[in-house]
Amino acid sequence: MKSALPYLFLASAAVAFSPASLPPQRSISTNHVRVSPGFKQVKRSNNNVNSISKLPSTTTALSAAATTSARQFNAKKRVATFMAFMTGWADFLLFTKYKFFATMMTGNSMWMMSAIVDARFRDVAFYASVIASYIFGVGLFRRAELSYKEKALTGLFAPVVTACFLLSDYLTMLNPACRWIPALMLAFSWGIINSVGSEVTGTLIFVVTGAMTRFSNMIVDRISRTAGRKKIPKEGLMMTLSVIGGFWLGAGWSVWLNKNAPQLTKYGVFSIIGGIYGSLFLYLDREQLGAWWSRKNGKLCEIDGDEVNCAEPEQ
User: Where do transmembrane segments lie in this chain (predicted)?
Assistant: First the structure.
């Protein structure tokens, strides 16, 4: 069982990111294009052959829009799964190494109340400062979002988050007993990370309990006559299961890594996680950053609505 978990993770990741998960692309042939009923039929003649071929097709437009929407949802689902996986990976490490949670404040709030009752005022100050640091991270992202919407928002925070992770690992390497400052930096970083995840995916990728609640409601509404036996929305169900499954895989991966590479867990793992988050932010913001890897002959090409193909800019 010890060696099966990494293979399970790799297999799940391969399925989630494989081209098979994309909707099948439909080939569009001009021989099957229908003339929209809203346009008059044009008689064949040498003068209007070109005009017939240029008439818009409502069917083609709707098909393209549906394909675009499906691909955009699949992209969001992949990001949600990956970020939930990262949250699960980090949660176990944070509890094991620092005895707190940087990704969610529920546990920290309970421990703070326990410390107040037991008159452990140093612990009260610790958990209160962690919660305040998380709130500051969320607030900073929100303020930047309102002020710099179109100016590489996630790219702006990529170096900040990565630097906080690297510095937290560095301080721990210098003094293994150091806990307070790394905790503040990690909580601040996850305030930004969770905000980015919510902004990009449209769901709370760090709240597994909420995802389970939504899943239960969908099942009950489907089988309940009182609720009208509502049809389960496919996109909502897939997003919910992606968050739950991604978190479980991340937590399992973290436990396996802690048992098989304990030194990495003590020194270096948060640097790796910070580098991954920084790279993810840059990838999400690739269009605003200019997509320098998408240049053709020294000129930028436009990323289309599907964020898949790169077409030459229109002149």
Answer: 124-141, 153-172, 192-215, 236-255, 267-284
Q: Which residues contact 146 (CB under 8 A, 6 or more apart)?
A: none
Give which of 95, 192, 87, 88 is closest to 136, Cα–Cα: 192
pLDDT, tens digit, for every residue of 87-119?
889 888 888 888 888 888 888 899 999 999 999
Residue type, 195: S
In angstroms, the CA 173 to CA 162 distance is: 17
The strand ranges marked E within the chain are: 295-296, 299-300, 302-303, 310-311
Domain boundaries, the chain: 4-10+78-288
Cα separation, 269 vs 255, in Å, equals: 13
Gyration radius (Cα) of the chain, Å: 25
Burial class (CB in 10 A: 0-12, 13-18, 19+), 272: middle
Considering the segment(s) 4-10+78-288 as one domain, its CATH architecture is Up-down Bundle (1.20)
0.85 surpassed by pTM: no
Answer whether 52's CB lies under 8 Å from 41's CB: no
241-257: average pLDDT? 90
Around 4, how many Cα atoms within 13 Å sit in the side-chain half-sphere?
1
CA pair distance 26, 219, nearest whole angstrom? 33
Question: By the 8 A CB rule, do 79 and 241 touch?
Answer: no
275/189 Cα distance (integer angstroms): 12
Grouping H, G, I as helix, E, B as strand and the rest as coil, residue 37 is coil
